Amino acid sequence: MRLPEKIRAFSPSNAQEAADQELMLQHLARYDDLLTRENPVMHFTASAWVVAPDREQVLMVYHNIYRSWSWTGGHADGEEDLLSVALREVREETGLLDVRPLFSDIFSLEILGVNAHVKRGHHVSTHLHLNATFLLEADPAQPLRVKPDENSAVAWIPAAEVIERSSEPDMQVVYRKLMEKLRAFPFDH
Question: Any idea what DSSP says for residue 88?
């Protein structure tokens, strides 16, 4: 299934997801460069909400640019299969080797504002991430490692502490939504 169909098939859980889904579909119909950073105003990203089998822990990284505990994720960079992007980013950013999707559909949609910053010595202007989040699972007993150019720590955070560990108010809203969706998710899916 192509990306527009996957986004169209997504079932929003709230007004934010419904509005962002509609905007993503409008932008996909209008622009042909949203899978790459060639579009400096907006482009697709994929994030992973990685949980332990008991759902009591969430895997997070301490993000160097934002100086906050964060989910894993990254740019599509031309890849239309955003689940593959999310899996790749988890492996690259945490060192996890065995991580699996709890289901292959998009778990959550968000349009995220990214403030201007410097990355690898280059200025990145303010832009939007058209983000698809996937629900993944991994065993916390696996070894972890940091990716020094992106994060300075990787840890399993108790689910009850995820929101307070983030120092980004906008992301706290997203993480709260993800925790609520996780609690309501039918795991026989």
Answer: H
pLDDT in tens, the chain (189 residues): 799 999 999 999 999 999 999 999 999 999 999 999 999 999 999 999 999 999 999 999 999 988 999 999 999 999 999 999 999 999 999 999 999 999 999 999 999 998 888 878 889 889 999 999 999 999 999 999 999 999 999 999 999 999 999 999 999 999 999 999 999 987 664
* Pair 50, 56: CB distance under 8 Å: no
> What are the residues whose beta carbons fall under 8 Å from the beta carbon of 9, sequence distance 6 or more?
1, 105
CB 148 within 8 A of CB 62: no
pTM: 0.94
How many angstroms separate the CA atoms of 7 and 5, rounded? 5
Q: Report how far apart, in Å, the C-alpha atoms of 186 and of each of 16, 64, 79, 89, 181 are.
A: 21, 34, 29, 25, 10
The whole-angstrom separation of Cα 92 and Cα 77 is 15
Question: Nearest 10 degrees: CA dihedral of 159, 24, 74, 37?
Answer: -160
Cβ pair 187, 177 in contact under 8 A? no
